Amino acid sequence: MNAPVSITRKNSVCPHDCPSACALEVEVLDNQTIGRVYGSKAQTYTAGVICAKVARYAERNHHPDRLLYPLKRTGPKGSGQFTRVSWDEAMAEIAQRLLTIEAEHGSEAIWPYSYAGTMGLVNRDGIKRLTHVKKYSGFYSSICINLAWPGYLAGTGKMMGPDPREMALSDCVVIWGTNAVATQVNVMTHAIRARKERGAKIVAIDIYRTPTLDQADLALIVKPGTDGALAVAVMHVLFRDGLVDREYLINSTDYTNEFEQHLKSKTPEWAASITGLTVAEIEAFAHLVGEKKRTYFRLGYGFSRQRNGSVNMHAASCIASVTGAWQYEGGGAFHNNGAIYHWRKSLIEGLDAVDKSIRQLDQSQIGRVLTGDNDALRGGGPVKALFIQSTNPMSVAPEQTLVKQGFAREDLFTVVHEQFMTDTAKMADFVLPATMFTEHDDLYQGGGHQYLGLGPKLIDPPGECRSNHDVICDIAHRVGAEHEGFGMTSRAIIDWTLQKSKWGTLEELEVKGYIDAQPAFEEAHFRKGFAWPDGKFRFKPDWPNVPFGGGRPSGPIEDIPTYPDHWAVSEKVTREYPFRLATSPARNYLNSTFSETATSKMREGEPTVLIQPDDANQHQIVDQSYVALFNARGTVRLKAKHFDGIKRGVLVAESIWPNSAYADGNGINTLVGADSPAPFGGAAFHDNSVGLRAL
Ligand SMILES: Nc1nc2c(c(=O)[nH]1)N[C@H]1C(S)=C(S)[C@@H](COP(=O)(O)OP(=O)(O)OC[C@H]3O[C@@H](n4cnc5c(=O)[nH]c(N)nc54)[C@H](O)[C@@H]3O)O[C@H]1N2
Ligand SMILES: Nc1nc2c(c(=O)[nH]1)N[C@H]1C(S)=C(S)[C@@H](COP(=O)(O)OP(=O)(O)OC[C@H]3O[C@@H](n4cnc5c(=O)[nH]c(N)nc54)[C@H](O)[C@@H]3O)O[C@H]1N2
Ligand code: SF4
Ligand SMILES: [Mo]
After folding, report:
1. How far does the centroid of ligand 3 lie from the alpha carbon of residue 46, in Å?
2. Which domain covers residue 251, as residue numbers?
3. Per-position DSSP letters for 451-477, written without gaps between them
4. pLDDT at site 7
5. pLDDT tens column, 99-110
6. Which of 40, 184, 301, 514 to mutate to test ligand 3, by most ligand atoms within 8 A of the CB atom?
7. In CATH, what number is assigned to the domain containing residue 628?
8. What is the number of the ligand 2 atom nearest to the C-alpha of 123?
9. 340 within some domain
């Protein structure tokens, strides 16, 4: 029976893979229905602002295309022909297939594959418990943070930083390599507050003129993969013009005369030729951050999605150490707050069951893994079964040609637990319907801020949708996996995790909604030292030993320059492939999520590549005409749009669209490589060389 129709607003947290992890107030219309979604005003980072796509979440939550019942494939792989089955029938057959594969090929032939469709700790990470207990192949989760985090850790040693709300107290906010207007709107809230209240300057650095750059006082458009050159030239100017904090350098960093000498040749002229900026732009940026000691460098993910991305991230963070910005309220460099929550995840992830001898397969290399690449398989046998939750690799993973070949294998047994019939779900043998965040309980943490929060179940799920937690526990029982976590409710796991992590109880969190986990000023600003034995920020990192938990050294790690620099390892342009392509995020999608909602689709239009008008004329590409982009990995057809806010030789295709949105079904990640860049792998989504031809 429905509750009386009175609109109540309930606290929740946005579950999507976004640094903002906004605190929400969800209108609950009745037991089955949500209304409008608002940003919480009381949670001071969200401060009442959320993105448009989540404000209209009812469109996604109550979408007519939601998966409601378990489905079993009846036609050929990928045909989209399924028949409805009961949960019991589906789970019994899935368990039996997994047990048979385990018996015939060993436990490592099964690869649970999941990512951050939901960021709820219980529902996102419970699959790891199953993986560990059953000794299934491990998951080297590389697709998002592996190029970004090591760069920040290389200097600071710890993944935290000055309180992001301090952006509002800065004299200069540098929004570097993140299109915050699109990907984490709250950065703009706090930066614009600083401008209004203190006359602060906003600098934004990207490879094309984004809505974020439109809001900046100084908008710098660099060539992809050249931020390291910009950062070292800025430091050159700071030393040259006496804008460095010598006392801070000596007391708080590993500064040496050798480092200063290294910067001597890194002139603005040198950097101008690499970045495509003018000398005047570089000088202006350097003087701004040199004169405004309260400069907050908000370092995003985007500029790290290059083969030299970690080096560039480190180089950018070094500027705050040269000026001593870290010392001041509203100053320093920030990327993510991952280290402040001190979670005890042993119950959620089954860490007590980890067997280090089990191979870890690289998420980004799923195409290579499924097509039998020996290196990608770490010398072991083939993967015979995939159990997928909360991710859509048939759209989002690099080397799509291989990904598609792999998923099409007749001998591969694939289960996909999803909310919609995604490109990945279409390839499954069984599709299981998943709940949304409003329909289950979970615990969330901010990456771009410092709150942890509760997202309670607010409404009943439609049809027969089940949460990740329930599905993992059910499958665990059926395949004989034993762990106390499989017998607990998600609420009991949340309570255990909160208590063991010293955040109180679930009951307390239910009252508060969220907890401000911000460390003290001294700690967040590294005033008591950076997280190294000598307490000093490192201009000269020890790359192989950067404390990136479980990171697997990859790529030409030994070739990383000793000091921050321009590391020229981007994919080379050639006569055949003369353009540099980035696949920056689309404002109305979140990775491939929301590409099912009508409003997002309408606002995004169709897959499009931005091209500089002189380049377009030279290659005889008419505005709004169709083109082919190609490289050795494949060909993608999409619309070209002339755009003057981009350097010559650079293309941007905002993503990620379903494959069916492209003329021949090849999505943009057809062009992206899955080679494993230094220092710890990852996917260089914005570092692709391609050719272009009119169609
Ligand atoms: N609307 C929307 N929001 C999202 C997402 C989305 O797809 N859409 N994705 C979510 C996820 S999973 C993540 S990890 C975050 C990521 O969010 P961000 O940290 O913003 O990172 P990216 O979205 O990869 O890219 C940000 C910007 O970096 C630019 N860029 C690319 N290469 C370079 C370079 O070499 N130098 C510089 N200076 N800039 C460069 C891109 O053009 C892009 O505009 O956003 C989350 N939020
Ligand atoms: N070209 C290009 N490709 C990229 C990027 C890029 O910038 N450019 N960015 C990369 C980055 S940073 C990332 S993080 C990855 C992200 O890639 P994915 O992790 O695959 O992210 P999404 O595309 O949002 O897909 C998440 C899926 O999870 C489902 N889902 C949501 N909640 C739940 C739940 O509770 N249970 C279950 N079972 N399913 C759920 C959603 O319906 C959705 O289909 O993409 C990467 N791919
Ligand atoms: S900005 Fe990010 S965290 Fe906030 S509501 Fe939108 S998708 Fe969710
Ligand atoms: Mo991501």
Report:
1. 9
2. 149-335
3. EEEEE---SPPSTT-B-HHHHHHHHHH
4. 81
5. 999 999 999 999
6. 184
7. 2.40.40.20
8. 35
9. no
